[in-house]
From TrEMBL:
Gene3D superfamilies: HUPs, Pantoate-beta-alanine ligase, C-terminal domain. NCBIfam families: cyt_tran_rel, panC. This is Pantothenate synthetase. Signal peptide: none annotated. GO terms for molecular function: ATP binding; pantoate-beta-alanine ligase activity. Homodimer. Keywords: ATP-binding, Cytoplasm, Ligase, Nucleotide-binding, Pantothenate biosynthesis. The keyword ATP-binding applies. One of its GO terms (biological process) is pantothenate biosynthetic process.
Length: 280
């Protein structure tokens, strides 16, 4: 497995593989890899001849008051995980490799990005779409792998690929969780011992809604209220949003009467965590 830092080096590897008729899977990440990322790489390795993992803390998807500087990084551990999982190449560019001083072309989506995480993070999806679009053009993969953990991102990328005719398949992968239910996230490393315990309110509140729905409740107002009550019982937690939205349009729904995404974002101390459940 090679680690490369320039677009040209990626293109060269891709040219060789394509000339040999090989297929390529891409797993875009920001690094500090865990079992969630590994599940994407495993799936990509199973479905493609070669897998490229990009590790890039993309500056343009962070807001001015967000954690760009402190975002955890560990290239050595990440490369071990990628190597063991069977990836062929890590693309680990410097920001200057992706964004020249004159960079001025962005991908903006006029639907899907205004609600949920887009409300608190207004320029986030512009940054995500732009970097993912660039990665698609650099790697030219047959398939690209994204986690359902970032459900809005998955919906946005699927929509972008359709709108802009990117010639690849998007594969969505299930959420990987810790044994106690907390969704795995690189940002979990920010949590103190008490916060780690408090963070369980996210998966617990989703489970409360699931139980109510299994028992026949369909009113999203009542479901939201039950989830809110549970989270507000935890002093270290502060709700950013609890939403039930149509899993296609991401528009809020009053009833669970179609495929629905139940998405939440909660601050645990200073750390903003997200989680969700999809009712297909
Ligand atoms: P990130 O490095 O956080 O940008 O994540 C890179 C990719 O890994 C995204 O497609 C995420 O949705 C996915 N991912 C992150 N955490 C998980 C998880 N716990 N389970 C499944 N996929 C995940």
């Amino acid at each position: 497995m090679k680690i490369v830092r320039t677009v040209e080096e990626v293109r060269q590897a891709v040219r060789t593989w394509k000339a040999e008729g090989k297929t390529i899977g891409l797993v875009p990440t920001m690094g500090y890899l865990h079992e969630g990322h590994k599940s994407l790489i495993d799936r990509a390795v199973a479905e493609n001849d070669h897998v490229v993992v990009s590790i890039f803390v993309n500056p343009i998807q962070f807001g001015p008051a967000e954690d760009l500087e402190t975002y955890p990084r560990d290239l050595e551990k990440d490369s071990e995980l990628c190597q063991t999982a069977g990836a062929s190449l890590i693309f680990h560019p410097d920001p200057s490799q992706m964004y020249s001083p004159t960079f001025s072309s962005f991908i903006n989506m006029s639907t899907l990005t205004g609600g949920l995480c887009g409300k608190t993070r207004p320029s986030h999806f512009q940054g995500v779409c732009t970097v993912v679009g660039k990665l698609f053009n650099i790697v030219e993969p047959n398939k690209a792998y994204f986690g359902q953990k970032d459900a809005q991102q998955l919906a946005v990328i699927r929509h972008m690929v359709e709108d802009l005719n990117f010639n690849l398949e998007i594969v969505g992968c299930p959420i990987v969780r810790e044994a106690d239910g907390l969704a795995k996230s690189s940002r979990n490393s920010y949590l103190s011992k008490d916060e780690r315990k408090a963070a369980l309110v996210l998966s617990q509140s989703l489970a409360i809604a699931q139980k109510m729905i299994n028992e026949g409740e369909r009113d999203t107002g009542k479901l939201t209220l039950a989830m809110t009550k549970h989270i507000e019982n935890e002093p270290l937690a502060k709700i950013d949003y609890i939403e039930f939205v149509d899993w296609k349009t991401l528009e809020p729904v009053g009833l669970i009467d179609r495929p629905v995404l139940n998405a939440i974002a909660v601050y645990i101390g200073k750390t903003r965590l997200i989680d969700n459940h999809i009712y297909e």
